[in-house]
Design a protein that fits this description.
The complex is a heterodimer of chains A (187) and B (512). By secondary structure, chain A is mostly helical. Chain A folds into two domains: 96 residues, no CATH class; 70 residues, no CATH class. Chain A contains seven helices and no strands. In chain A, 30% of the residues are buried. Chain B is mostly helical and 512 residues long. Chain B has one domain. In chain B, 74% of the residues lie in helices and 1% in strands. Chain B has 21 helices and two strands. In chain B, strands 1-2 form a two-stranded antiparallel sheet. Chain B starts with a helix and ends in a 6-residue tail after the last helix. Classes of the chains: A mainly alpha (187), B mainly alpha (512). The interface between A and B is large, with 77 and 94 residues.
Chain lengths: 187, 512
């Protein structure tokens, strides 16, 4: 087994050796600038809490932390700007791939629709679209896998652990009661 | 001995059918998480947190489940190192060096079971270390006042970047960001809303479980989606696992190595900011220096497998010492575990041992049980775990995302929290791509409020005199350690890191 394309570093390293120490990735400088602007904005917001009233005032610590954020973001910007660009990467392919953006939209859609539509239809939609888009397999495969895993998740969480999920348009409670009645209705 | 009586009580708590089943489940899931390339212990625990909560478990059973996942992930990381030459997680990096060559020689089965035994030895003795060291630390910690606590937290932050951090400015940014996140909500001492931007949902503050599941679990999903871990199974070679039991002579040959590495790894785990990766690294390098007379390390020497595996599992046990005794986590995974404790309304720290002895000793007993289970599970079930490596992540990921959704919704019942979680997921994903570490963010979010309260309390007690922070010998000592811990890595960290990379780079294995 060979190294999976070292130039496409995926960032799994998390605070540990990894990435490009001596190069700047596509979009990294832009991101560092955004970090800086956001930090300064938050510093302003923190100043608005109580101003320079006293050191133990509610705004003192927030101001201190946002100040640290601003300073370290500034250092990051300066350092990043002085590094040479990584030449093998492009913004669209390596930093913001379309598949992740799509998936984020799916997730947001899920969170928004969950209440009005209910758990079962929303999850079914989410899993079918998600698995179809990602695996690019046949509809039959997609439907089997997504509905199968939905059924498993629903059985485990709703029936076994009795986690309450929004019912929405599906008459879930009546449905469960129907099966309870069928199986004797003891409880 | 009081310790043994407490331990016996612990076993009495841990040995119920429910807890044993939970430990079994945790070990199994943990090993799978560890074996999947990319998913490490901290992500594994984060992904399974919602499960623990939706099960409605009490403190001890949840902890038993999650620490079994932790230990299991530590065990599991080695499987893909040995079979595929791709480390399952960071600490298993060094295991590739001798594990894969051994697998190529057709001794994969022996390598796997030997590493299982080494993991067992490391974790077993480290748990004993935990038992004896933690109470001693508690005795010191009971002397702490607000000023000392503040110094202790500062120490945790200053040493966190530690040897492994690439860029101190990015670590500092992350820590400050985490502290800032902790400030969100209404200030408990004055009732002033802070960083809420007029959003009523934020007045209660952020639920850090939402933040953790977003940062660790969802960002992991995004990274998986992008690629490329998937590439690992695309051209799977059939590795012959071969004979499963290592010959007696091999175990005898590696025993001293295991014991030495356990000691070193445990120390690395206890020290703040070092963690399991360093534990496995220093164990391997020391063994290489001590016993590699024929230059067989790197060509499939069994001792080269035993050393890092004993080292990283011992470090996993060691990292629990400061978390339980001081309430200050030494690594990413223990930070995640700390979050779980806090949301169960248990405050780790010196008082934990006197106020919730059932939790502490039940947990410790569970560690022993999990350890034996893992040993028993890992040797015969290696075949099953290797097959898990072949599940295409692109199908797994939507399901993982959905499980975190259901879990978080089950805890809070609010779709606002789901959006916050997605926000954290995106943030974690972008930050990781640009090498901003996530662990300081979590630590900041967790400790921020306690740290601020202690600081303000100390200042109020002394009528606004800031010198109170360095007034006692204890706090001066803590500050000194903090400063050394901050400066030392700046000096030697770069060198250790370069070596770590050079070592692994020689073999061309690292997929970071």
């Amino acid at each position: 087994m060979t190294t999976p394309e070292p130039e496409h570093h995926d960032g799994t390293s998390d605070a540990t050796p990894g990435g490009y120490e001596s190069n700047r990735r596509a979009g990294e400088l832009g991101f560092a600038v955004i970090m800086l602007i956001a930090s300064v904005g938050l510093l302003w917001n923190a100043y608005g809490i109580s101003g320079f009233e006293a050191l133990s005032a509610p705004g003192a610590i927030p101001m201190a932390t946002t100040l640290v954020m601003s300073i370290s973001a500034l250092i990051v910007v300066v350092r990043t700007a002085s590094l040479p660009r990584v030449t093998t990467e492009t913004l669209a392919k390596d930093i913001l791939p379309i598949v992740v953006i799509l998936f984020v939209c799916l997730l947001i859609g899920y969170a928004v629709l969950l209440r009005p539509l209910g758990f079962l239809p929303t999850s079914a939609l989410f899993l079918i679209i998600g698995i179809k888009l990602l695996s690019k397999r046949s509809w039959r495969f997609t439907l089997t896998v997504s509905l199968g895993s939905l059924l498993a998740i629903w059985l485990i969480f709703r029936i076994v652990f009795t986690v309450l999920m929004p019912a929405g348009i599906v008459p879930e409670a009546e449905f469960i009661q129907f099966f309870r009645d069928l199986s004797g209705g003891a409880n | 001995m009081e310790t043994f009586a407490s331990l016996a009580d612990g076993f009495a708590i841990a040995l119920t059918w429910q807890n044993i089943l939970l430990a079994l489940l945790g070990c199994f899931l943990g090993t799978i998480m560890g074996a999947l390339p990319g998913l490490g212990p901290s992500n594994g625990v984060a992904i399974l947190i919602p499960l623990a909560f939706t099960l409605g478990l009490g403190a001890t059973p949840s902890l038993i489940l999650l620490t079994s996942v932790y230990y299991g992930a530590m065990y599991g990381g080695r499987i893909s190192s040995i079979l595929l030459n791709i480390p399952g997680d960071e600490p298993a990096m060094m295991t590739c060096l001798d594990g894969y060559p051994m697998a190529q020689k057709g001794m994969a089965g022996q390598a796997l079971s030997l590493s299982g035994i080494a993991s067992f030895v490391g974790a077993f003795f480290a748990t004993w270390g935990l038992i004896f060291l933690a109470p001693q630390l508690v005795k010191i910690a009971l002397l702490f006042g607000p000023a000392e606590y503040f110094a202790l937290f500062a120490l945790a932050f200053m040493t966190l970047g530690g040897v492994s951090s690439t860029n101190q400015a990015k670590s500092a940014f992350a820590a400050a960001l985490g502290l800032g996140l902790a400030m969100i909500g209404v200030d408990t001492q004055t009732g002033v809303p802070r960083f809420t931007f007029g959003e009523v949902h934020l007045y209660d503050g952020l639920d850090f479980l939402v933040a953790i599941v977003g940062l660790f679990a969802l960002s992991e999903v995004f990274i998986f989606l992008e690629k490329r871990h998937g590439a690992a199974d695309a051209d799977k070679k059939k590795v012959k696992v071969g004979r499963l039991t290592p010959p007696w002579s091999m175990i005898k040959q590696t025993t001293p190595t295991m014991l030495r590495s356990t000691g070193l790894g445990f120390l690395a785990g206890v020290l703040p900011g070092a963690g399991a990766s360093l534990g496995s690294f220093i164990s391997y390098s020391m063994e290489k220096r001590l016993v590699d007379k024929d230059k067989t390390f790197g060509t499939g020497d069994p001792r080269g497998i035993a050393a890092p595996e004993a080292g990283n599992n011992a470090a996993a046990g060691g990292a629990l010492v400061p978390m339980l005794a001081l309430g200050v986590p030494g690594s990413g995974t223990t930070a995640v575990l700390l979050a779980v404790l806090l949301s169960l309304n248990i405050t780790p720290g010196p008082l934990l041992f006197s106020q919730n002895p059932d939790v502490v000793w039940g947990l410790i007993a569970a560690l022993f049980i999990a350890n034996f289970m893992l040993l028993a599970m890992n040797i015969p079930m290696v075949g099953l775990f290797t097959r898990v490596l072949m599940v295409p992540p692109r199908i797994l990921m939507p399901v993982v995302a959905m499980v975190s959704f259901v879990g978080i919704y089950g805890i809070s019942g609010s779709s606002f929290d789901l959006l916050v979680m997605i926000g954290f997921g995106i943030m974690g994903w972008v930050l990781r791509k640009l090498d901003v570490p996530l662990v300081p963010i979590i630590l900041g979010t967790l400790l921020g409020n306690t740290m601020e309260n202690n600081l303000r309390r100390a200042i109020t007690i002394s009528n606004g005199d800031w010198m109170t922070l360095i007034d006692s010998p204890l706090s001066i000592g803590l500050w000194v350690i903090a400063i050394i811990g901050f400066i030392l890595p700046l000096v030697i960290g770069r060198r250790v890191k370069a070596q770590m990379h050079a070592k692994a780079g020689e073999e061309g294995t690292i997929s970071d």
